[in-house]
Amino acid sequence: MSQSVRDDLADPEFHANPHPVYADWRREGPVRPARMANGMVVWLVTRYDEARRALSDPRLSKVRGGLTTLTGDIERALSSHMLAVDPPDHTRLRRLVSAAFTARRIEALRPRIAEITDELLDQIAARDPVEPFDLIDAFAFPLPIQVICELLGIPADDRDDFRNWSNIIVGGVAYQSEFPGAAVAMVAYIRDLLAARRTGPGDDLLSGLIEVRDSEDRLTEDELISMVFLLLIAGHETTVNLIGNGAALLLARRERWASLRADLSLLPTAIEEFLRYEAPVETATFRVTTEPVTIGDQLVPAGAQVVIGLLSANRDETRFPDPDTLRLDRDQNPHLAFGHGIHYCIGAPLARLEAQIAFTGLLTRFPSLRLAVPESELTWRPGLLLRGLFTLPVTVGPE
Fold first, then answer.
1. Domain boundaries, the chain
2. Whole-prediction pTM value?
3. How many angstroms separate the Cα of 211 from the Cα of each of 36, 74, 89, 148?
4. pLDDT over threshold 80, residue 391
5. CA–CA distances in Å: residue 377 to residues 79, 252, 374, 390, 392
Protein backbone atom coordinates (compact mmCIF):
# COMPACT_ATOMS: atom_id res chain seq x y z
CA MET A 1 0.00 0.00 0.00
CA SER A 2 1.69 3.20 -1.12
CA GLN A 3 1.65 6.15 1.26
CA SER A 4 2.25 9.85 0.63
CA VAL A 5 3.79 12.14 3.24
CA ARG A 6 0.33 13.70 3.71
CA ASP A 7 -0.74 10.36 5.15
CA ASP A 8 2.07 10.38 7.72
CA LEU A 9 0.61 10.80 11.20
CA ALA A 10 4.12 11.24 12.65
CA ASP A 11 4.90 14.35 10.59
CA PRO A 12 5.83 17.15 13.06
CA GLU A 13 4.00 19.69 10.88
CA PHE A 14 0.86 17.58 11.16
CA HIS A 15 1.04 17.56 14.97
CA ALA A 16 1.67 21.30 15.11
CA ASN A 17 -1.66 21.96 13.40
CA PRO A 18 -3.57 18.87 12.24
CA HIS A 19 -6.85 20.64 11.51
CA PRO A 20 -6.17 21.71 7.87
CA VAL A 21 -4.93 18.18 7.07
CA TYR A 22 -7.97 16.58 8.67
CA ALA A 23 -10.20 18.97 6.67
CA ASP A 24 -8.53 17.85 3.42
CA TRP A 25 -8.90 14.21 4.39
CA ARG A 26 -12.60 14.64 5.24
CA ARG A 27 -13.19 16.12 1.79
CA GLU A 28 -11.46 13.13 0.20
CA GLY A 29 -13.44 10.53 2.12
CA PRO A 30 -14.55 9.30 5.55
CA VAL A 31 -11.73 6.79 6.07
CA ARG A 32 -8.20 6.40 4.71
CA PRO A 33 -5.00 4.44 5.32
CA ALA A 34 -2.41 6.39 7.28
CA ARG A 35 1.06 5.62 8.59
CA MET A 36 1.90 5.74 12.29
CA ALA A 37 5.26 6.82 13.70
CA ASN A 38 6.33 3.17 14.05
CA GLY A 39 5.57 2.53 10.37
CA MET A 40 2.33 0.60 10.99
CA VAL A 41 -0.51 1.44 8.61
CA VAL A 42 -3.93 2.01 10.18
CA TRP A 43 -7.33 3.01 8.84
CA LEU A 44 -8.17 6.50 10.08
CA VAL A 45 -11.84 7.52 10.33
CA THR A 46 -12.18 11.29 9.84
CA ARG A 47 -15.87 12.20 9.39
CA TYR A 48 -18.47 12.60 12.14
CA ASP A 49 -21.22 10.20 11.07
CA GLU A 50 -18.79 7.40 10.27
CA ALA A 51 -16.82 8.03 13.48
CA ARG A 52 -19.97 7.92 15.61
CA ARG A 53 -21.06 4.64 14.02
CA ALA A 54 -17.58 3.15 14.31
CA LEU A 55 -17.40 3.98 18.02
CA SER A 56 -20.38 1.69 18.68
CA ASP A 57 -19.82 -0.94 15.95
CA PRO A 58 -19.35 -4.36 17.62
CA ARG A 59 -17.32 -5.54 14.62
CA LEU A 60 -14.57 -3.14 15.69
CA SER A 61 -13.01 -4.96 18.63
CA LYS A 62 -11.07 -3.37 21.47
CA VAL A 63 -9.09 -6.57 22.06
CA ARG A 64 -5.78 -5.96 20.32
CA GLY A 65 -3.57 -8.70 21.70
CA GLY A 66 -0.21 -8.21 23.32
CA LEU A 67 1.74 -5.06 24.00
CA THR A 68 4.87 -6.72 22.67
CA THR A 69 7.38 -4.61 24.63
CA LEU A 70 5.99 -5.83 27.96
CA THR A 71 6.20 -9.10 29.85
CA GLY A 72 3.02 -11.13 30.22
CA ASP A 73 2.10 -10.17 33.79
CA ILE A 74 2.68 -6.45 33.19
CA GLU A 75 0.75 -6.58 29.93
CA ARG A 76 -2.23 -8.26 31.64
CA ALA A 77 -2.13 -5.71 34.44
CA LEU A 78 -2.37 -2.81 31.96
CA SER A 79 -4.85 -4.28 29.48
CA SER A 80 -7.62 -5.76 31.66
CA HIS A 81 -9.65 -2.55 32.03
CA MET A 82 -12.97 -1.82 30.35
CA LEU A 83 -11.43 0.26 27.53
CA ALA A 84 -9.47 -2.77 26.34
CA VAL A 85 -12.18 -5.44 26.21
CA ASP A 86 -15.46 -6.20 24.43
CA PRO A 87 -18.80 -7.44 25.78
CA PRO A 88 -19.52 -9.50 27.80
CA ASP A 89 -16.28 -8.68 29.67
CA HIS A 90 -16.81 -4.95 29.15
CA THR A 91 -20.41 -5.14 30.41
CA ARG A 92 -19.29 -6.88 33.58
CA LEU A 93 -16.38 -4.49 34.26
CA ARG A 94 -18.43 -1.37 33.56
CA ARG A 95 -21.17 -2.57 35.91
CA LEU A 96 -18.71 -3.25 38.72
CA VAL A 97 -16.76 -0.01 38.31
CA SER A 98 -19.95 2.07 37.99
CA ALA A 99 -21.07 0.70 41.34
CA ALA A 100 -18.06 2.43 42.95
CA PHE A 101 -17.73 5.42 40.59
CA THR A 102 -21.16 6.86 41.34
CA ALA A 103 -22.67 10.25 40.54
CA ARG A 104 -23.11 10.80 44.28
CA ARG A 105 -19.41 10.21 44.91
CA ILE A 106 -18.48 12.64 42.11
CA GLU A 107 -20.87 15.38 43.22
CA ALA A 108 -19.60 15.04 46.78
CA LEU A 109 -16.22 16.17 45.49
CA ARG A 110 -17.50 19.62 44.50
CA PRO A 111 -16.52 21.44 47.74
CA ARG A 112 -13.08 19.82 47.76
CA ILE A 113 -12.45 20.64 44.09
CA ALA A 114 -13.37 24.26 44.83
CA GLU A 115 -11.03 24.26 47.83
CA ILE A 116 -8.10 22.87 45.80
CA THR A 117 -8.83 25.39 43.05
CA ASP A 118 -8.78 28.28 45.51
CA GLU A 119 -5.49 27.07 47.04
CA LEU A 120 -3.84 26.92 43.61
CA LEU A 121 -5.22 30.32 42.58
CA ASP A 122 -3.94 31.81 45.86
CA GLN A 123 -0.47 30.55 44.97
CA ILE A 124 -0.75 32.16 41.52
CA ALA A 125 -1.95 35.43 43.04
CA ALA A 126 1.12 35.51 45.27
CA ARG A 127 3.44 35.54 42.24
CA ASP A 128 5.06 38.59 40.72
CA PRO A 129 2.22 39.83 38.44
CA VAL A 130 4.54 40.58 35.53
CA GLU A 131 6.68 37.44 35.80
CA PRO A 132 5.62 34.75 33.27
CA PHE A 133 4.76 31.29 34.58
CA ASP A 134 3.39 28.05 33.15
CA LEU A 135 -0.37 27.79 33.74
CA ILE A 136 -0.29 24.05 33.07
CA ASP A 137 2.38 23.40 35.67
CA ALA A 138 0.84 25.82 38.19
CA PHE A 139 -2.86 24.99 37.71
CA ALA A 140 -4.07 22.74 34.87
CA PHE A 141 -1.98 19.76 36.02
CA PRO A 142 -2.06 19.95 39.85
CA LEU A 143 -5.84 20.42 40.06
CA PRO A 144 -7.00 17.19 38.36
CA ILE A 145 -4.09 15.09 39.62
CA GLN A 146 -4.84 16.10 43.21
CA VAL A 147 -8.54 15.42 42.69
CA ILE A 148 -8.02 11.95 41.22
CA CYS A 149 -5.42 11.11 43.88
CA GLU A 150 -7.83 12.09 46.66
CA LEU A 151 -10.71 10.28 44.96
CA LEU A 152 -8.69 7.08 44.75
CA GLY A 153 -7.01 7.60 48.12
CA ILE A 154 -3.46 8.02 46.74
CA PRO A 155 -0.84 10.29 48.38
CA ALA A 156 -0.64 13.57 46.46
CA ASP A 157 3.11 13.61 47.15
CA ASP A 158 3.44 10.94 44.46
CA ARG A 159 1.81 13.05 41.74
CA ASP A 160 5.10 13.92 40.03
CA ASP A 161 5.80 10.20 39.59
CA PHE A 162 2.37 9.79 37.99
CA ARG A 163 3.03 12.73 35.69
CA ASN A 164 6.30 11.22 34.53
CA TRP A 165 4.88 7.73 34.04
CA SER A 166 1.79 9.08 32.29
CA ASN A 167 3.76 11.29 29.89
CA ILE A 168 5.82 8.27 28.87
CA ILE A 169 2.92 5.83 28.58
CA VAL A 170 0.72 8.10 26.43
CA GLY A 171 3.60 9.75 24.55
CA GLY A 172 3.82 7.14 21.81
CA VAL A 173 6.99 6.44 19.86
CA ALA A 174 8.72 9.53 21.29
CA TYR A 175 9.08 7.62 24.60
CA GLN A 176 9.27 4.08 23.23
CA SER A 177 12.51 3.15 25.00
CA GLU A 178 11.23 4.41 28.35
CA PHE A 179 7.79 2.79 28.11
CA PRO A 180 8.58 -0.64 29.64
CA GLY A 181 10.27 0.88 32.70
CA ALA A 182 7.41 3.31 33.31
CA ALA A 183 4.84 0.53 32.95
CA VAL A 184 6.67 -1.76 35.39
CA ALA A 185 7.07 1.05 37.93
CA MET A 186 3.43 2.06 37.75
CA VAL A 187 2.14 -1.51 38.09
CA ALA A 188 4.40 -2.14 41.10
CA TYR A 189 3.17 1.06 42.75
CA ILE A 190 -0.50 0.16 42.21
CA ARG A 191 0.06 -3.38 43.57
CA ASP A 192 1.48 -1.89 46.77
CA LEU A 193 -1.46 0.51 47.06
CA LEU A 194 -3.97 -2.31 46.71
CA ALA A 195 -2.16 -4.38 49.34
CA ALA A 196 -2.24 -1.45 51.75
CA ARG A 197 -5.97 -0.83 51.17
CA ARG A 198 -6.83 -4.47 51.80
CA THR A 199 -5.31 -4.26 55.29
CA GLY A 200 -6.55 -0.72 55.95
CA PRO A 201 -9.56 0.21 53.79
CA GLY A 202 -10.81 3.79 53.72
CA ASP A 203 -13.64 5.90 52.33
CA ASP A 204 -12.10 6.21 48.89
CA LEU A 205 -12.64 4.82 45.40
CA LEU A 206 -9.70 2.43 45.63
CA SER A 207 -11.23 0.75 48.68
CA GLY A 208 -14.60 0.82 46.91
CA LEU A 209 -13.20 -0.96 43.87
CA ILE A 210 -11.67 -3.65 46.08
CA GLU A 211 -14.92 -4.22 47.94
CA VAL A 212 -17.45 -3.84 45.12
CA ARG A 213 -19.18 -7.02 44.06
CA ASP A 214 -22.22 -8.13 42.09
CA SER A 215 -23.45 -11.29 43.76
CA GLU A 216 -20.27 -13.41 43.82
CA ASP A 217 -18.57 -11.44 41.05
CA ARG A 218 -15.81 -8.97 41.79
CA LEU A 219 -12.75 -7.49 40.12
CA THR A 220 -9.68 -9.72 39.83
CA GLU A 221 -6.23 -8.46 40.85
CA ASP A 222 -5.26 -7.73 37.22
CA GLU A 223 -8.58 -5.99 36.65
CA LEU A 224 -8.12 -3.86 39.76
CA ILE A 225 -4.59 -2.82 38.75
CA SER A 226 -5.73 -2.10 35.22
CA MET A 227 -8.72 -0.03 36.32
CA VAL A 228 -6.64 2.04 38.73
CA PHE A 229 -4.10 2.56 35.94
CA LEU A 230 -6.86 3.70 33.58
CA LEU A 231 -8.50 6.00 36.14
CA LEU A 232 -5.18 7.58 37.11
CA ILE A 233 -4.17 8.38 33.55
CA ALA A 234 -7.56 9.15 32.02
CA GLY A 235 -8.70 10.84 35.22
CA HIS A 236 -6.13 13.59 34.98
CA GLU A 237 -4.67 13.69 31.45
CA THR A 238 -7.92 14.61 29.73
CA THR A 239 -8.76 17.32 32.27
CA VAL A 240 -5.25 18.81 32.12
CA ASN A 241 -5.75 19.18 28.36
CA LEU A 242 -9.32 20.46 28.70
CA ILE A 243 -8.22 23.24 31.05
CA GLY A 244 -4.99 23.99 29.19
CA ASN A 245 -6.49 23.94 25.70
CA GLY A 246 -9.52 25.95 26.79
CA ALA A 247 -7.42 28.62 28.50
CA ALA A 248 -5.16 28.88 25.45
CA LEU A 249 -8.18 29.33 23.17
CA LEU A 250 -9.58 32.10 25.36
CA LEU A 251 -6.27 33.91 25.78
CA ALA A 252 -5.28 33.70 22.11
CA ARG A 253 -8.18 36.08 21.39
CA ARG A 254 -8.65 38.07 24.57
CA GLU A 255 -12.07 39.32 23.51
CA ARG A 256 -13.17 35.73 24.18
CA TRP A 257 -11.75 35.93 27.72
CA ALA A 258 -13.51 39.26 28.30
CA SER A 259 -16.87 38.10 26.91
CA LEU A 260 -16.91 34.89 28.94
CA ARG A 261 -15.85 36.76 32.08
CA ALA A 262 -18.70 39.22 31.51
CA ASP A 263 -21.26 36.42 31.25
CA LEU A 264 -20.34 33.31 33.23
CA SER A 265 -23.71 31.77 32.32
CA LEU A 266 -22.00 30.88 29.02
CA LEU A 267 -19.45 28.71 30.78
CA PRO A 268 -21.22 25.34 30.36
CA THR A 269 -21.60 25.80 26.60
CA ALA A 270 -18.08 27.24 26.39
CA ILE A 271 -16.63 24.10 28.02
CA GLU A 272 -18.49 21.92 25.52
CA GLU A 273 -17.08 24.08 22.73
CA PHE A 274 -13.53 23.67 24.09
CA LEU A 275 -14.15 19.91 24.04
CA ARG A 276 -15.31 20.07 20.43
CA TYR A 277 -12.89 22.61 18.99
CA GLU A 278 -9.62 21.35 20.51
CA ALA A 279 -10.58 17.96 21.90
CA PRO A 280 -8.26 16.80 24.71
CA VAL A 281 -8.32 13.28 23.23
CA GLU A 282 -7.34 13.38 19.56
CA THR A 283 -8.17 9.79 18.66
CA ALA A 284 -10.01 6.93 20.31
CA THR A 285 -7.92 3.96 21.39
CA PHE A 286 -7.25 1.33 18.71
CA ARG A 287 -9.85 -1.04 17.40
CA VAL A 288 -9.45 -4.13 15.19
CA THR A 289 -11.95 -5.30 12.57
CA THR A 290 -13.20 -8.81 13.34
CA GLU A 291 -14.57 -9.12 9.78
CA PRO A 292 -14.58 -6.93 6.66
CA VAL A 293 -16.38 -3.68 7.51
CA THR A 294 -17.64 -1.01 5.13
CA ILE A 295 -17.01 2.50 6.44
CA GLY A 296 -18.57 5.06 4.14
CA ASP A 297 -17.95 3.53 0.73
CA GLN A 298 -14.63 1.96 1.75
CA LEU A 299 -14.29 -1.74 2.57
CA VAL A 300 -11.85 -2.16 5.45
CA PRO A 301 -10.50 -5.73 5.58
CA ALA A 302 -10.70 -8.07 8.55
CA GLY A 303 -7.85 -7.79 11.01
CA ALA A 304 -7.19 -4.13 10.21
CA GLN A 305 -6.26 -1.58 12.86
CA VAL A 306 -8.81 1.25 12.97
CA VAL A 307 -8.21 4.65 14.56
CA ILE A 308 -11.22 6.94 15.03
CA GLY A 309 -10.31 10.62 14.72
CA LEU A 310 -12.32 12.44 17.41
CA LEU A 311 -10.52 15.74 16.76
CA SER A 312 -11.34 15.51 13.07
CA ALA A 313 -14.95 14.37 13.56
CA ASN A 314 -15.57 17.32 15.87
CA ARG A 315 -14.72 19.73 13.04
CA ASP A 316 -16.86 17.98 10.41
CA GLU A 317 -18.51 20.65 8.25
CA THR A 318 -21.55 18.46 7.61
CA ARG A 319 -22.35 18.23 11.33
CA PHE A 320 -21.18 21.53 12.86
CA PRO A 321 -21.96 24.89 11.21
CA ASP A 322 -18.84 27.01 10.83
CA PRO A 323 -16.75 24.31 12.55
CA ASP A 324 -13.44 26.19 12.53
CA THR A 325 -14.92 29.08 14.52
CA LEU A 326 -14.88 28.88 18.32
CA ARG A 327 -18.42 29.82 19.38
CA LEU A 328 -18.80 30.04 23.13
CA ASP A 329 -22.60 30.04 22.81
CA ARG A 330 -22.83 27.01 20.49
CA ASP A 331 -25.90 25.26 21.89
CA GLN A 332 -26.20 22.31 19.47
CA ASN A 333 -22.93 20.55 20.17
CA PRO A 334 -23.06 16.73 20.07
CA HIS A 335 -19.27 16.41 19.99
CA LEU A 336 -17.46 13.10 20.36
CA ALA A 337 -14.77 14.29 22.79
CA PHE A 338 -15.84 11.69 25.38
CA GLY A 339 -16.54 9.00 22.78
CA HIS A 340 -19.88 7.33 22.08
CA GLY A 341 -21.57 4.02 22.78
CA ILE A 342 -20.59 1.48 25.42
CA HIS A 343 -17.10 2.96 25.84
CA TYR A 344 -18.37 6.50 26.53
CA CYS A 345 -16.05 8.03 29.14
CA ILE A 346 -17.20 7.13 32.65
CA GLY A 347 -15.30 10.14 34.00
CA ALA A 348 -17.02 12.75 31.80
CA PRO A 349 -19.09 14.22 34.70
CA LEU A 350 -15.92 14.65 36.80
CA ALA A 351 -14.04 16.34 33.94
CA ARG A 352 -16.91 18.77 33.34
CA LEU A 353 -17.22 19.54 37.06
CA GLU A 354 -13.50 20.24 37.40
CA ALA A 355 -13.47 22.42 34.29
CA GLN A 356 -16.46 24.46 35.44
CA ILE A 357 -14.90 25.17 38.83
CA ALA A 358 -11.44 25.80 37.32
CA PHE A 359 -12.59 28.31 34.69
CA THR A 360 -14.92 30.07 37.12
CA GLY A 361 -11.96 30.62 39.41
CA LEU A 362 -9.56 31.74 36.70
CA LEU A 363 -12.03 34.15 35.10
CA THR A 364 -13.12 35.63 38.42
CA ARG A 365 -9.71 36.01 40.05
CA PHE A 366 -7.55 37.07 37.10
CA PRO A 367 -9.24 39.52 34.72
CA SER A 368 -5.84 40.49 33.23
CA LEU A 369 -4.56 36.95 32.61
CA ARG A 370 -2.82 36.87 29.22
CA LEU A 371 -0.40 34.86 27.12
CA ALA A 372 3.26 35.63 27.79
CA VAL A 373 4.34 34.41 24.32
CA PRO A 374 2.78 34.65 20.85
CA GLU A 375 0.23 31.92 20.12
CA SER A 376 2.52 30.66 17.34
CA GLU A 377 5.15 29.68 19.95
CA LEU A 378 2.86 27.28 21.82
CA THR A 379 3.88 23.67 21.17
CA TRP A 380 1.88 20.46 21.37
CA ARG A 381 2.84 17.22 23.08
CA PRO A 382 3.77 14.30 20.81
CA GLY A 383 1.60 11.29 20.19
CA LEU A 384 -1.70 10.70 18.43
CA LEU A 385 -3.86 9.80 21.44
CA LEU A 386 -3.94 13.07 23.40
CA ARG A 387 -4.11 16.71 22.28
CA GLY A 388 -2.44 19.00 24.79
CA LEU A 389 0.18 21.70 25.15
CA PHE A 390 3.62 21.21 26.66
CA THR A 391 3.40 24.55 28.44
CA LEU A 392 1.13 27.60 28.56
CA PRO A 393 3.23 30.66 29.52
CA VAL A 394 1.06 33.43 30.97
CA THR A 395 1.16 36.47 33.22
CA VAL A 396 -1.56 37.69 35.57
CA GLY A 397 -0.74 41.41 35.44
CA PRO A 398 -1.85 44.06 32.94
CA GLU A 399 0.10 44.75 29.75
1. 5-395
2. 0.92
3. 41, 23, 19, 19
4. yes
5. 37, 11, 6, 11, 10
Nearest to 275, CA basis, from 250, 318, 307, 241: 241
Mapped to the 3 state alphabet, what secondary structure does the chain carry? Answer: CCCCHHHECCCHHHHHCCHHHHHHHHHHCCEEEEECCCCCEEEEECCHHHHHHHHCCCCEECCCCCCCCCCHHHHHHHCCCHHHCCCCHHHHHHHHHHHHCCHHHHHCCHHHHHHHHHHHHHHHHCCCCCCCEEHHHHHHCHHHHHHHHHHHCCCHHHHHHHHHHHHHHHCHHHHCCCHHHHHHHHHHHHHHHHHHHHHCCCCCHHHHHHHCEECCEECCHHHHHHHHHHHHHHHHHHHHHHHHHHHHHHHHCHHHHHHHHHCHHHHHHHHHHHHHHCCCECECCCEEECCCEEECCEEECCCCEEEEEHHHHCCCCCCCCCCCCCCCCCCCCCCCCCCCHHHCCCCHHHHHHHHHHHHHHHHHHCCCCEECCCHHHCCECCCCCECCECCCEEECCCC
Contact in structure between 227 and 82 (CB atoms under 8 Å): yes
Nearest to 308 by CA among 300, 76, 319: 300
Residue scoring higher pLDDT (358 or 13):
358
Cα separation of 193 and 169, whole Å?
A: 20
Taking 60 as the threshold, does the pLDDT of residue 67 lie above it?
no
- For a pLDDT cut of 70, what percent of the chain falls above it? 94
Q: In CATH terms, is domain 5-395 a member of 1.10.760.10?
A: no
